[in-house]
Amino acid sequence: MKKQIEYSILDLAIVSQGTTLKDTFDHALSLAQAAEAEGYTRYWLAEHHNSVAIGSSATSILIGNIAEGTKKIRVGSGGIMLPNHSPLIIAEQFGTLGILYPNRIDLGLGRAPGTDQETAKAIRSDFYQAAMSFPDEVQKIQHYFSSENANAKVRATVAEGVEVPIYILGSSTDSAHLAAKKGLPYAFASHFATTHLMNALKIYHQEFQPSEVLEKPYTLAGVNIIVADTDEEAERISTSLYRMIIGLLTGKRGFMQAPTEMTDELRALSQNPSVQQMLRFSFIGSKETVKREVKQFIADTQVDELIAVTNIYDGQDRIKSYQLFAAIMRELNNEDS
Questions:
Q1: How far apart are CA 14 and CA 53, in angstroms?
Q2: Where is the Luciferase-like domain (predicted)?
Q3: Distances (CA, A) of 236 to 180, 227, 280, 296
């Protein structure tokens, strides 16, 4: 029987020029509701700090808002940057979410700061030390969620025995070793960190040790997706993404700009090796074009789930892109093996 590929969403709550943060949060909820209707498995929110263009900084609060406004789609973090936080506090936050929204909350954990070095230091003065202790910090969270922790001196009482699956996120091979050793599902940030994807997946599969939560490896991969009625329209919409990535690489960060026609200058910049490397796993075009490219990506990686990242200026264009991507995934899942 052919393996069914799950499809999900990773949202950074990108703020478009001329919109407010409240607009951005309202759109996130509208998108999650549309995603639920289209059969998406989960809606994850990232954690970022000190960026005017990214609204997902108080991640657990946004997760609660999305979960409250939906009925069945899983909602979680993609991810919580654990070195920024006390494991006890995260266990309490996500234990509480898990009680309020049973069997719907995911806890994805990463070790990057999700910001610049100066801000990371402002968040937590011993950030570097905490990052080096990431495996131990993950272990602490697992203890806090276990029923056995009821006998410990330090407890996250609202988390004990609560069903909140933990996912290890990564953008390098380090995380692959950890996820495999712990027998946890592994999500790779290939929507921007493309270099180590194949190697990381290989390590994870080779070293995977079955655990209480997972009998066999489970992998998720981030991909940039922009789908429109035609290749030309998708290319026009994608100019906002290209400008955002170029701004990121040149240190000129700002709100997401409205799309324009693809100029010769922007096309030349988009061909820059750094931009091409970061957006290597970006599938932009009509339904037919994206379906062909996504099918090849799944064949190459053998992942169990795709996490689609769709950074588009206009909210309705974004929802439409996700609806078209859902149609692609349903078609691929229904094809004969």
A1: 5
A2: 15-302
A3: 41, 11, 18, 24
Determine, yes or no, domain membership for 159: no
Tell me the backbone φ, ψ of residue 246, rounded to 5 degrees: -60, -40
* 100 belongs to a structural domain: no
The phi and psi torsions of 43 (rounded to 5 degrees) equal -125, 110
Number of domains in the chain: 1
Burial tier of 273 (Cβ tally within 10 Å: 0-12, 13-18, 19+): exposed
Tens digit of each residue's pLDDT (9 = 90 or more) over 204-244: 999 999 999 999 999 999 999 999 999 999 999 999 999 99
Average pLDDT of the residues in 101-106: 98
pLDDT attached to residue 226: 98
Helix axis angle for 59-68 and 87-100, nearest 10°, is 10
Please state, in angstroms and rounded to a whole number, the distance separating the CA atoms of residues 109 and 141. 10
Q: How many other C-beta atoms lie within 10 A of the C-beta of residue 35?
A: 26
The answer to the question of residue 249 being in a domain is: yes
Overall pTM > 0.90? yes
Q: Is residue 172 part of a domain?
A: no
pLDDT at 253 over 90: no
